C-alpha cells in the first residue's frame, strides 16, 4: 500500500449569501480570503477560499455560495462537523467573542483530552473550535479582527456521519490513516503523525436519515498529496482496488481526484502545489477575481453575473 496522506488539504461547503459568508469568516473567525475565483463547473457562482496568510494545505475552508439554494440537512453520508484548531488557552475567549457577535454556542466540552466549542455559521454549517493540550505550532493569520494569541491555526479535523462503520474504516486504512481510538460510537483516525490538521472522526448513527447536500452542509473533504506524480500513482492504486475515481482535474491551484467513501461522503485527494500565489502576489491574495485561462474569454459575462464583495482592508496588508 503506497497511499500515505499527511493530513487534510481543505474542506469545501455550500454557503448562502456570499457577502454574509465573507463577513463571518473574515471578520468573526479572522481567516484570510486567499482566493476569489468561481466554481469551475458553474462560473456564475463564486468559489471563496479562506485560510491562513498564504492558504497552506490544512488551513483551508472553501465555499460555493449559492444565495438562493435551498437549505441542506445534516445526516449520514456527509461530513457533519468541520473543526478548527485554536490555542489551548483560547476556548473561553472564543466563546465570549462569538457571543458578542451574536453567535449561539454550545457549552465547552472535553473530548480526547481536548476542549471543544461547537456552533453554526450563519447558514447553519456546523463548526467547532478545538484546543489541543500540546498546542499547534502552525502560524495564525495575524489580522485586526482576532488577536494572534487566540487566532485559528488551521483545520483540526472533520467528523463524518455514517450508518455503518466497517467499509468506511477500511477505506481510511487504504488512504494511509491509522485508527487511534474509539469513544462510544465515535471512531478517530489520524494521518501521518496525527494531531491537529490530520484527523477524521467517524460517528456511527444507524438510525439517522441520509443528509442532503445544499446550503449549510459540506460538499466534500480533501486530503493531501505531495505532488502530481504521487497523486497519479495513488489514483491508479485506488482504481486497481475497484474505487470509482474521477480523472485528474485541474483546479488551477492544485490538481484533484474525487471519489466517495462507502458511507457516502465525497472525498478528494488534492496536491499541495502549485498554491495560491501563482497568479497574484502574496500581499494581494483574494482581492481580485481570478479565472482559469479557459474562462478568461468569458470574464465580462462572469463578472456581470457575480455580486460585488466588500472585503476588509486587513485581508491585504499592503492596503491596510
Automatic annotation (TrEMBL):
Asked if the keyword Zinc-finger belongs to this entry, the reply reads: no
Q: Which residues form the VOC domain?
A: 7-132, 154-272
Q: What's the domain of life for this entry?
A: Bacteria
Q: Name one GO molecular function term.
A: dioxygenase activity
Q: Which InterPro entries is this protein grouped with?
A: Extradiol_RC_dioxygenase, Glyas_Bleomycin-R_OHBP_Dase, Glyas_Fos-R_dOase_dom, VOC_core
Q: Which UniProt keywords apply?
A: Dioxygenase, Oxidoreductase
Keyword Oxidoreductase attached: yes
Q: What is this protein called?
A: Ring-cleaving dioxygenase
One Pfam family matching this protein:
Glyoxalase
* Organism, as annotated: Amycolatopsis alkalitolerans
Q: Which PANTHER family match?
A: RING-CLEAVING DIOXYGENASE MHQE-RELATED
Amino acid at each position: 500500500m503506497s497511499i500515505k496522506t499527511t493530513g487534510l488539504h481543505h474542506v469545501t461547503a455550500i454557503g448562502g449569501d456570499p457577502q454574509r459568508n465573507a463577513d463571518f469568516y473574515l471578520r468573526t473567525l479572522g481567516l484570510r480570503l486567499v482566493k476569489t475565483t468561481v466554481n469551475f463547473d458553474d462560473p456564475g457562482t463564486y468559489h471563496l477560499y479562506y485560510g491562513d496568510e498564504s492558504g497552506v494545505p490544512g488551513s483551508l475552508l472553501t465555499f460555493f455560495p449559492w444565495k438562493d439554494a435551498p437549505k441542506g440537512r445534516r445526516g449520514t453520508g456527509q461530513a457533519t462537523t468541520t473543526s478548527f484548531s485554536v490555542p489551548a488557552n483560547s476556548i473561553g475567549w472564543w466563546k465570549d467573542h462569538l457571543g458578542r457577535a451574536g453567535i449561539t454556542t454550545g457549552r465547552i466540552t472535553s473530548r480526547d483530552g481536548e476542549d471543544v466549542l461547537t456552533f453554526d455559521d450563519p447558514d447553519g454549517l456546523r463548526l467547532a473550535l478545538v484546543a489541543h493540550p500540546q498546542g499547534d505550532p502552525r502560524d495564525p493569520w495575524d489580522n485586526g479582527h482576532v488577536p494572534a494569541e487566540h487566532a485559528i491555526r488551521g483545520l483540526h479535523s472533520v467528523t463524518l456521519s455514517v450508518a455503518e462503520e466497517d467499509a468506511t474504516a477500511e477505506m481510511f486504512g487504504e488512504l494511509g490513516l491509522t485508527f487511534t481510538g474509539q469513544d462510544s460510537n465515535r471512531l478517530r483516525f489520524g494521518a501521518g503523525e496525527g494531531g491537529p490538521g490530520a484527523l477524521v472522526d467517524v460517528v456511527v448513527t444507524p438510525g439517522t436519515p441520509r443528509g442532503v447536500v445544499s446550503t449549510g452542509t459540506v460538499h466534500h473533504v480533501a486530503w493531501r498529496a505531495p505532488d502530481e506524480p504521487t497523486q497519479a500513482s495513488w489514483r491508479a492504486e485506488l482504481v486497481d482496488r475497484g474505487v470509482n475515481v474521477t480523472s485528474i482535474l485541474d483546479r488551477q491551484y492544485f490538481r484533484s481526484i474525487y471519489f466517495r467513501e462507502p458511507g457516502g461522503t465525497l472525498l478528494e485527494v488534492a496536491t499541495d502545489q502549485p498554491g495560491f500565489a501563482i497568479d497574484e502576489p502574496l500581499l494581494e491574495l483574494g482581492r481580485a477575481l481570478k479565472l482559469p485561462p479557459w474562462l478568461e474569454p468569458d470574464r465580462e459575462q462572469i463578472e456581470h453575473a457575480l455580486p460585488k464583495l466588500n472585503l476588509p482592508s486587513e485581508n491585504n496588508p499592503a492596503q491596510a
